[in-house]
Amino acid sequence: MFQSFDVSSDPSQGPARVARLRAYLAEKGLDGFLVPRADEHQGEYVAARSERLQWLTGFTGSAGAAIVLPDSAHVFVDGRYALQVRGQVDGATFTVENLVDTPPAKWIGENVAAGARLGFDPWLHTIGEAKALRAAAETCGAELVALDTNAVDAIWTDQPDAPLGRVEIHDLAHAGELAKDKLARMADMVHDAGADHCVLTDPSSVAWAFNIRGSDVPHTPLALGFAVLAAKGEHLLFMDKRKLPRETEAYLTQLADLRAPGMLDDELVRRARTGAKIALDPALAAERLRMLIEDNGGTVVSMPDPARLPRATKNAQELDGSRAAHRRDGAAMAKFLDWLDGQPPGTVDEIGAATALEEFRASTGEALQMPLRDLSFDTISGAGPDGAIIHYRVTTPTNRTLQDGELFLIDSGAQYRDGTTDITRTLPVGTPDAEMRRRYTLVLKGMIGISMLRFPAGTRGADIDAVARLALWKAGLDYAHGTGHGVGSYLSVHEGPQRIAKTGTEKLLAGMILSNEPGYYKEGAYGIRLENLIIVTEAEPVAGGDIAMHGFETLTLAPFDRRLIATELLTREEFDWLNAYHARVLAEIGPLLSGADRDWLERAAAPFEAHHHPIR
């Protein structure tokens, strides 16, 4: 199994740990400390060693922060975790704050007393974040103090060691481009930016650039390390050699000079003292890197990570691999849905469903000769009111049985060598009521709206987010998360910079993979989310039009539950899209199934007949 359902946090530990942290801060002459959910690479998934926020507060979400002051402590989470945080954090110790409406920088400016000395670890905050934090501290007359030793590390006596996951070569058949050619392209970009060197801080960028994959963090095949790219000359890769099998080490030595991770600081200082111009991405690079360069006479050149856009715009082999991964994953999903349909209400629980789906993925991957390498995240398996917790993670104590009359939401994904998947389906347990069917269909209309959309070059995710919400907004409903995130190619299931959200400022380019996942959540009752992955297609002429338009190709192949679809709410265009999608699911997944599974899919993907009311 690639996931555990053990409880990984304990709210009762919070008060004692906060007390120890306050005592340490007092010894160091500090009045507070910031604890982001981050590591030195600013990644979403972090090694156990870097789970400082979870250790201190009990909160296990993938985004958040805490601020501990002498007389108060605060934990910041976004809308996805508003319900989850209540059950994981000691409410008498921590006040919950909104990470989006009142992020730490804004909160500091409004709440920290003049003269206070607020500590932070510059390895765990980006250059941009540190700048905002400093400005906020100055506004209220406080001082932001960069620490050489992380205050949580100082009191975390049994902190895990740094990971040493095995690093593998990601072969050309899946990568689609040689690493030496990628590195040459990026070296030209560094030169064009006016820099001598560029530090790659994102392990996804390092993995993509060098065509390697690792196993240092959960569910994402990353090898933690840094690279220093040279505009001219030799590149440097800072990675623990204990992670490198002989073949991988020999391969990497042809691309870069291999150095121990601990040598990065000295190398940057050495180059800075020669007056080097070193590029950093202020949205990704740690503040510590800026300090090392500028404090030693070097110049920091602000430059977007040169791997981000090339990595996001998948090449033909990466896209073909993703299509193959989704066909395989769709077959596993069909087997799971057929199995679940055959279980009477009250006989399956959330863990049993999540476990079964993982087993179907594993067996299907083996049968189709592309083994499941991992899940792409811990499965969100929420029955009834648990489905309303947007990023619910089932544990043994919270495990709930799927009961008659409820909805069941399952959001899951897989990692295969040829692609990364992410799919959400919402299913009825027994007979759904009219409200459930109506709201499910409103969510489905939003997904179809994005799926059918055509848009001109230059369109950003923020420009189209409302399309997914339109039907819900008309009914006075909404959801507290973005509509879509970028997805990697056997990399992170949450990949930037592309996203469909109110904050999605990156232009949508051909070859980008995104999720399309509107939802609706009724607290204490049920949750609805539907998710497919989609590819941005090349701009093509529109008959009778003036401008070539991009569109989306849907990757995910799994039927929507017909028991929840109120077809009378669909327009003729939406109705036709749904039938065409189900026909495609049957055509592409059907040949991979046999017997009862094939029979089930034929029923689930059968065309809908037009409702007796006229479809608008």
**Lateral strand order in the biggest sheet:** 4-3-2-1-5-6
Low-confidence stretches: none
End-to-end separation: 47 Å
Q: How many structural domains does the protein architecture include?
A: 3
Beta strands, count: 27
Which second-level CATH architecture of the largest domain applies?
A: Alpha-Beta Complex
Provide a count of the helices.
19
CATH class descriptor of the largest domain: Alpha Beta
> How would a textbook summarize the main sheet?
6 strands, mixed
Shape: globular
Strand-residue proportion: 15-25%
Gyration radius, to the nearest Å?
A: 25 Å
* Helicity level: 25-40%
Q: In CATH, what is the homologous superfamily of the largest domain?
A: Creatinase/methionine aminopeptidase superfamily
Query: From the helix content, strand content and strand pairing, which structural class follows?
Result: alpha+beta
How is the CATH topology of the largest domain named?
Creatine Amidinohydrolase
Quaternary state of the chains:
single chain
**Average pLDDT:** 96
Can you walk through the features of this model?
The longest helix has 26 residues, at 316-341. The chain is 34% helix and 17% strand. Helix 16 (434-452) runs antiparallel to helix 17. The protein has 19 helices and 27 strands. The protein folds into 3 domains: 11-155, Creatine Amidinohydrolase, Chain A, domain 1 (3-Layer(aba) Sandwich), CATH 3.40.350.10; 168-311, Creatine Amidinohydrolase, Chain A, domain 1 (3-Layer(aba) Sandwich); 313-596, Creatinase/methionine aminopeptidase superfamily (Creatine Amidinohydrolase), CATH 3.90.230. By secondary structure, it is α+β, with helices and mostly antiparallel strands. A hairpin with a 4-residue loop joins strand 2 and strand 3. The strands form 8 sheets. It has a 6-stranded mixed beta sheet.
